[in-house]
Amino acid sequence: MKELTFATTVKSYAFDELPETYRQLVEKAKAMTRNSYSPYSGFRVGAALLLDNGEILGGTNQENAAYPSGLCAERTAMFYANANYPDVPVRALAVACYTNGHFTDEPGSPCGSCRQSLLETEHRFGKDIPVILYGEKHTIVFESVRSTLPYCFVNDSLQG
Ligand code: THU
User: Fold this and answer.
1) Contact (Cβ atoms closer than 8 angstroms) between residue 159 and residue 126
2) What is the mean pLDDT of residues 17-44?
């Protein structure tokens, strides 16, 4: 038996320390929270994607009376990008969460299903997608989706 260790390093920034592009993306994610459809949880999530062509796209969580039929903001944004810009790589993703009248102090982090969906796009284009998670106290940056999912499952894993 041997033990394997999977380590992840993230960067924690004060908002003002973020690179300009990341700040812009966070502002878009924050603005998107206003479009969230979240009557059941009251938890408004906004996501913003920067495409390789410079365009910025947004997404929000979309809830449903049949709870599991809803979708997170990250996947809404990513599926929209993949549906409308199938050949354009995604350069970065930002997420912001708003509840009880304010943005969350701690960053909201994508759920497991979102990480897996985001990974597909990252892997498909072979370009790291930094994941920028905004919180009022600090903003956490993962350098890639892969780094949020140790020992992940991708298309190569299907080869046996
Ligand atoms: N949610 C997201 O949109 N993204 C996340 O990363 C975590 C959770 C949504 C799902 C649901 O509408 C609400 O937040 C509460 O879980």
Assistant:
1) no
2) 98
Which tokens belong to 58?
A: 């947004």
**Res. 155: pLDDT tops 80:** yes
Query: Is the model's pTM score more than 0.90?
Result: yes
Q: How far is the CA of 46 from the centre of ligand 1 (A)?
A: 9
Residues 114 and 30: their CA atoms lie apart, in Å, by 19
User: Which residue type occupies 142?
Assistant: F
What HEC string does 16-72 produce?
A: HHCCHHHHHHHHHHHHHHHHCECCCCCCEEEEEEEECCCCEEEEECECCCCHHHCEC
What lies within 8 Å, CB to CB, of 145 at 6+ separation is 93, 115, 118, 119, 121, 122, 128, 129, 131
Q: Is residue 74 among the annotated active site residues?
A: yes
List the residue whose alpha carbon is closest to atom 3 of ligand 1.
72
Distance (angstroms) between ligand 1 centre and the Cα of 70 equals 9
Alpha-carbon span 12 to 111, nearest angstrom: 19
